[in-house]
């Protein structure tokens, strides 16, 4: 399963109150663009395929965020990940936050080599933040 969103995540991404998402689900059920079905249930919480939600928001023009596709990574849920994978993602995000604070500038534009150089400068003994970005999967 790919990236997922909870109903609260969808509301945050669309910049609406949480009950609005429930109204969308109900009202769009029998329309040309029905709200996406849950991709899974984790515990008692439904999670939705993030790409399907972005397509639905874009196609229907719902919400108050014209940049849902760009902002999606800020809102995805970690619930559907296995516990081991969730820990890796959480550790990686924590490391990026530490590096961002240490660098005092956005790190998103750094290529892998630049980020690893920064991590090595900040944590030369790999006590906190070097191994996480080193072991992360990178997009080409």
Word description of this protein:
- This protein has 140 residues and is mainly alpha-helical.
- It is 51% helix and 7% strand.
- It has a 3-stranded antiparallel beta sheet.
- The two termini are 21 Å apart.
- The model has no long low-confidence stretch (mean pLDDT 84).
Calculate Rg over CA atoms.
18 Å
Total number of beta strands:
3
What general form does the structure show? elongated
The total of helices stands at: 7
Beta-strand residue percentage: 5-15%
Regions with little confidence, pLDDT below 50 for 5+ residues:
none
Distance between the termini: 21 Å
Q: SSE string, helix = H, strand = E? A: EHHEEHHHHH
The mean pLDDT is 84
User: Quick one: biggest sheet?
Assistant: 3 strands, antiparallel
**Helical residue percent band:** 40-55%
Q: Strand sequence of the main sheet, in spatial order? A: 1-3-2
Query: What structural class do you assign from the helix and strand content?
Result: mainly alpha
């Amino acid at each position: 399963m790919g990236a997922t969103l909870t109903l609260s995540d969808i509301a945050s991404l669309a910049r609406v109150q949480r009950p609005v998402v429930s109204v969308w689900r109900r009202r769009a059920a029998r329309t040309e663009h029905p709200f996406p079905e849950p991709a899974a249930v984790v515990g008692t919480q439904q999670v939705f395929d993030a790409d399907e939600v972005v397509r639905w928001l874009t196609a229907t023009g719902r919400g108050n965020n014209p940049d849902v596709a760009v902002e999606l990574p800020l809102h995805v849920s970690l619930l559907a990940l296995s516990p081991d994978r969730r820990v890796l993602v959480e550790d990686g995000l924590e490391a990026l936050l530490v590096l961002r604070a240490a660098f005092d500038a956005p790190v998103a534009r750094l290529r892998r080599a630049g980020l690893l150089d920064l991590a090595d400068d900040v944590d030369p003994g790999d006590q906190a933040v070097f191994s996480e970005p080193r072991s992360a999967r990178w997009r080409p």
